[in-house]
Amino acid sequence: MLAFRKYVRDLEALARADSLSPGAASVLAALNGQPAIELRRAVSLAKRREAGAFFTPPHVVATVRSRLRGTLSHTSVILDPACGAGDLLLAAALELPPESSLDARIRSWGRRLQGLDLHSEFIDAARARILILARSLSSDSPSPADSPASLLNGLRVGSGLEEGHYPAATHIVMNPPFGQVPAPLDLPWATGMINRAALFIWTAITGMRPSARLVAVIPDVLRSGTRYRRFRSAIRACGDLSFPVVHDRFDEATDVHTALLDFVRRSQPAVGLSSEVASQRAIVGDLFAVKVGPLVPFRHTDGDVPRLPYLHPGNCPRWGTLDSVSETRAFSGTTFAAPFVVVRRTSRPEDRYRAVPTLIVNGPQTFAIENHLLVAIPRDKSLSRCKQLVALLRRPASSLWLNETIRCRHLTVAAVAGIPWE
Which of 45, 173, 327, 394 is the most buried (most CB within 10 A)? Predict the structure, then answer.
């Protein structure tokens, strides 16, 4: 991140300027999205992905700030364990009670605002921006007795994956890295590779004190993905969890849909909480067994096994009907007998239809189905039920429900099975 250092020096010079007009273009830019632009200009996408360095865009910052509004007092301590250039700490600072002077404000913010990041350039940028914000809210100048930057020593280089940072905080805000990492061996809800954001959230929740609050920007898969059901269940056992806001793309350069997680820690963990709140109305899963196609092309190569009719997104017509296919594949795994419906897993919230099906009617053979398709098998084994499902997926209400439930680009078994059966 050394290439970002030149811009950090510009921020520090602005923070030390003799006069600083609140409405100046340089001040407004520094406080509203300019660091993200400069980071993209200075550092390649590959390096930013490796570091998980994607600063929070202004529209997402605004939603975090709205969740903090009215909850902060003179005794609040706000921690961002992956603070980057300090966007979420700036939002929290604006919600803290006002102070009588610039010096009082800087000293108060120095005690109440805490941030961690692995990159010293980001910490320096966050300190400079907090000072710029403090000065923009005051007409007086800072006292020469102390270096204002030294008073913001709650921001420091460090890892947010250490529980010891969390007990002092009354409020935690974060936009953690989203990349994949191996799950720790003692993690109770997952094994293998997991999203790093989930590990940050879990570290905060297990380290924070009772009644503390966490507001975090997360990839939508943590809110809606089947694989993270146990993650959500484990969090609900520790406190009150909600997902009050679902965003579209994180920003114009990052094709990831996000959600806001809002959590308050309980004094004692609950016992026997279900992973999801059960719906009282009929859903697709009541009438269909929904599965992922079991054939993985790069794993299941041709061998000395029978060749079977083979379904994949390329030979399943959108909203069409099939009773046979000429394409075959050597496969010895689970196969499916018609009638059933296949649904393309790849799906975006911008699409007119989130779940695009193909109806497979009665045929003489069973089918091998690729893992890029979901398979919905009617429990009553009837073709008429399959036709009803196709009609249901055409309804705007079904796409709306899916958009509210899952924003990531791959539909899950849980999402399709949970569609209300109207």
Answer: 173
